[in-house]
Amino acid sequence: MRRRRVLVAGVAAAVLLGTGCGQVAADRVHPVLRHESAGAAADRAHPVLRHEPAEAAGSWGRAIAVPGLAALNKGREAVVLSVSCPSTGACGAGGYYHDGGRRGFVDSESNGRWRQAVEVPGLTALSKGGPGQVIKVSCASAGSCAAGGFYRYGSSHHQGFVVSESNGRWRQAIEVPGLAALNKGGDAEVISVSCASRGSCAAVGFYTDGSGHQQGFVVSRTNDRWRQAIKVPGLAVLNKGPYARLQSVSCASAGSCSAAGFYAAGASGSTQAFVVSERNGSWGTAHQVAGNLTGPGGDAGVNTVSCGSPGNCAAGGQFSKASGNDQAFVISEVNGIWAPARAVAGTLSCCGGALVTSVSCASAGNCAAGGQFDYGGYNAAFLVNEKNGAWGKLMYVPGLNAVSRDAHLSSVSCASAGNCAAGGNDDVGTWVAKEKNGVWGKETTVPGVPVEAVQSVSCASARSCLAGGSYVAPGQGYALQGFVTQ
Question: Closest Cα to residue 285, out of 338, 242, 334?
Answer without folding.
Answer: 338
